Amino acid sequence: MAAKQYKAIGEEAWKNNVEKVNAELFIFTYGSLVVQLVKDFEDYGAVNKQLDKMGYNIGVRLIDDILARTGIDKCADFHTTAEVVAKVGFRVFLNIAPAIANWSADAKEFSLILEDNPLNDFCELPPKAVQEGLWYSNVLCGVIRGALEMMQMQTEVWFVHDVLRGDDVSEIRVKLVKILDEEVPVGDE
């Protein structure tokens, strides 16, 4: 499928197949969650790990929802995967479509450039959080990693830039580590 087709699939799913939640409620709830994690862990590195873990668990479940709503088949290659993540996954759940950029020479890494990140709305990080390495929207990295793992792709996903840290855009880097063998759960032969 061409990139334009994935864009159309994502837009169609957003318009017709997604139960919408009030954006401000979602954003403030997420912000409260991050604040509570900062209070609980008192270490920004631990907060980043917890957000990634939470996102991973969300991504593991969201991929089935995306596939059911869109009818997309398994991606043929990592380029197609990037298109589906950016143009379908992000559109269906956040109504944004990040640009895909900075492919590595071996085509195993790419960046998602978020001109607009709804999680950042109404948010300003304190200087200490920036200095000590908080990645406020790190839940997105976990979501991507979890969803791709369910599609048999082990990945590493991390933020490179974030507007909340003074950068011009937010950039998430996605690296394919390996294709996982499909395993049948024990007892499901």
From TrEMBL:
<dbReference type="InterPro" id="IPR016721">
    <property type="entry name" value="Bet3"/>
</dbReference>
<keyword id="KW-0256">Endoplasmic reticulum</keyword>
<dbReference type="InterPro" id="IPR007194">
    <property type="entry name" value="TRAPP_component"/>
</dbReference>
<dbReference type="InterPro" id="IPR024096">
    <property type="entry name" value="NO_sig/Golgi_transp_ligand-bd"/>
</dbReference>
<comment type="similarity">
    <text>Belongs to the TRAPP small subunits family. BET3 subfamily.</text>
</comment>
<dbReference type="GO" id="GO:0030008">
    <property type="term" value="C:TRAPP complex"/>
</dbReference>
<dbReference type="Pfam" id="PF04051">
    <property type="entry name" value="TRAPP"/>
</dbReference>
<dbReference type="GO" id="GO:0005794">
    <property type="term" value="C:Golgi apparatus"/>
</dbReference>
<dbReference type="GO" id="GO:0048193">
    <property type="term" value="P:Golgi vesicle transport"/>
</dbReference>
<dbReference type="GO" id="GO:0005783">
    <property type="term" value="C:endoplasmic reticulum"/>
</dbReference>
<keyword id="KW-0333">Golgi apparatus</keyword>
<keyword id="KW-0931">ER-Golgi transport</keyword>
<keyword id="KW-0813">Transport</keyword>
<dbReference type="GO" id="GO:0016236">
    <property type="term" value="P:macroautophagy"/>
</dbReference>
<protein>
    <recommendedName>
        <fullName>Trafficking protein particle complex subunit BET3</fullName>
    </recommendedName>
</protein>
